[in-house]
Amino acid sequence: MASSYFLQGKYDEVLVYLNSIKAYHQQDDTFSFNLGQTLLMCKQYKEAEEQLLAVTGQERDKILYRSMLARTLIQNRKPHAAWDLYARTKDTKEAFYLLKLIANDYYKAGEYFHAAKAFNQLEKIDPSPEYWQGKRGAACGVFRHLFHGRVTPDQMSEILGLLERDNHPQADFVVSTIRKWAVNHKIDLK
After folding, report:
1. Whole-prediction pTM value?
2. Which GO terms fall under biological process for this protein (predicted)?
3. Inter-CA distances, 56 with 2, 47, 64, 152, Å
4. Three-class DSSP category at 47
5. CA-to-CA distance for 60 and 46, rounded, in angstroms?
6. Using an 8 Å Cβ cutoff, are 86 and 99 in contact?
7. Residue 169 pLDDT > 90, yes or no?
8. CB-based burial of residue 119 (10 Å sphere; 0-12 exposed, 13-18 middle, 19+ buried)?
9. Which of 5, 11, 45, 101 might form a disulfide with 75, Cβ 3.0–4.6 angstroms?
10. In this model, does residue 119 exceed pLDDT 90?
11. In this predicted structure, what is the pLDDT of residue 1?
């Protein structure tokens, strides 16, 4: 029944079934992975992370596992840990897929500093306009966070450095706008 409900997208129902047999599957990697995925879909991120980290076998090497864990880590405000998952991925195709996933998830979660860096990396691999737009949007999000005191001037400077290395015509406009604002507000950006 749990599998049927999972395929139907009825994750709350899946959780009822999986929790009813949880005590019998404490050391079962497949069960922990399935419960972790379900908890992620139910937005119970802390519990999802615990279940996914309980997986100890070969599942850990699969891209689906890494993807689910990365999403959970981002939602639990551990963006560095999600980036480490990407950095440790040896297969080029899987690394690109994971980088794309975490860039978008960083952005959705409002982790704009990390999103800008991830989109920058994607743009180096594949100079698609989509990745430039993601990086530009994330850079503007970092600026917004600077305005509200959620990032440091050094972090903003790092993102401006990424934009300044671009040959994109909009990069100059974004950089100059942010730098003018910083000068007017006596914020030192390197």
Report:
1. 0.89
2. intraciliary anterograde transport; intraciliary transport involved in cilium assembly
3. 23, 16, 15, 37
4. helix
5. 18
6. yes
7. no
8. buried
9. 45
10. yes
11. 85
